[in-house]
Amino acid sequence: MITCFHVALMSKKHSKPNFSQSQASEMVKRLFRLTPSEIHSLPSYSDQNFYVAAVEGGEYILKIMNSEHTMNPNLIEVQTYAMSFLQQNGLPCQTVLPTSSGHLMSLEEMDCGYGCQKYLVRLLTYLPGTTISKVPLTPQLLYETGKTAARMDTILQKMEHPHLTLLHRENFIWSLSSFTLLEPYISVLDGDPLQEVVKSVIHQYKISVLPKHPSFRKCINHGDFNDLNILVQPCESDGYRISGILDFGDMNSGYYIYELAITVTYMMIEHPRPIEVGGPVLAGWESVLPLNEAEKECLYVLVLSRFCQSLVIARYAVTLNPENREYLMTTSKKGVHILHQLWELGKEHVEKVWFQSAAQFSDGK
């Protein structure tokens, strides 16, 4: 079981594609019969993304999957279908432009410095907007974020696909169900006061969250509804509206409460007063899907758990890919401080702030 976790992290070191701009441009011409007038790379955790503007018209994202994920094309097919399904049901998601031969993906072989490997390539529609990380997180925008997350999971739960069972990703490192698999890796925090907090959160998860799993409602999670995967655009009311949902690579079978906890975690990272985030996000979520008692009881520990996952996995990934330190540690910079703050304030205080604020926000609607 632990080995799966270790292999998943270790293998990423040599699985990320490293295509040049000219190679990406050639692929666009050959596979999609489009001529790029502009092409440039975009940041990505484990895949490779290029922005493409075509002479023929239209803007796209060329997404080159890492060699590890390429080994499971059926899972990529489910993720691709999910984006289309959400878009058909009124949420702003990317859709795939088929290749000139009518396929949704193409398998490309390339030596990116570690011998010849295969990479799945897709061309996705480009969604306009800026990441939510770059705009003021007003209570109204946080409410819309929580509401969108709940709508997304309720829609995904209705989705049918022949390979849907592949979303049962046992020991998937980013699933909150796999949280205790972090234990052998907290040695990356040796000498850091954060280590004791992480150990304590794992203990709390074991005694307060695991026994309540049977009461959680199952669903399909996006799994990474974070501040860099949500796009926004200005709207007439001087605020912002959500204009895009990106990156379905962490989709997995989980529970509704996981998605809410993940959303609260990442919105806290971008807010000047993190503890104030939970209320509006929770109010938006519950406008679509009210929590049951077990879910309410576990929200605090699950938010802490996601912070711990993000921090420990990022620290471990840096040991494998030191050249990507800045990108990998994006969440960590602010996350360490917030995790300490939440832990010191305690469950009772934080829940009181979140749930009272959510009730007041809903009453004012």
TrEMBL record:
Ranges for domain Aminoglycoside phosphotransferase: 43-285
Pfam families: APH (PF01636)
GO CC terms: cytoplasm
Signal peptide: none
SUPFAM superfamilies: Protein kinase-like (PK-like) (SSF56112)
The reaction(s) this protein catalyses: (5R)-5-hydroxy-L-lysine + GTP = (5R)-5-phosphooxy-L-lysine + GDP + H(+)
Keywords noted in UniProt: Cytoplasm, Kinase, Transferase
InterPro entries referenced in this protein's UniProt entry, alphabetically: Aminoglycoside_PTrfase, Kinase-like_dom_sf, Pseudomonas-type_ThrB
EC number(s) from the headed UniProt entry: 2.7.1.81
UniProt entry tagged with the keyword Cytoplasm: yes
Domain of life: Eukaryota
Enzyme class, UniProt record, top EC level: transferase
One example GO MF annotation: hydroxylysine kinase activity
Compartments where found: Cytoplasm
Gene3D superfamilies reported for this sequence: 3.90.1200.10, Phosphorylase Kinase, domain 1
Function: Catalyzes the GTP-dependent phosphorylation of 5-hydroxy-L-lysine.
Family listed: Belongs to the aminoglycoside phosphotransferase family.
Name of this chain's protein: Hydroxylysine kinase
Species the sequence originates in: Monopterus albus
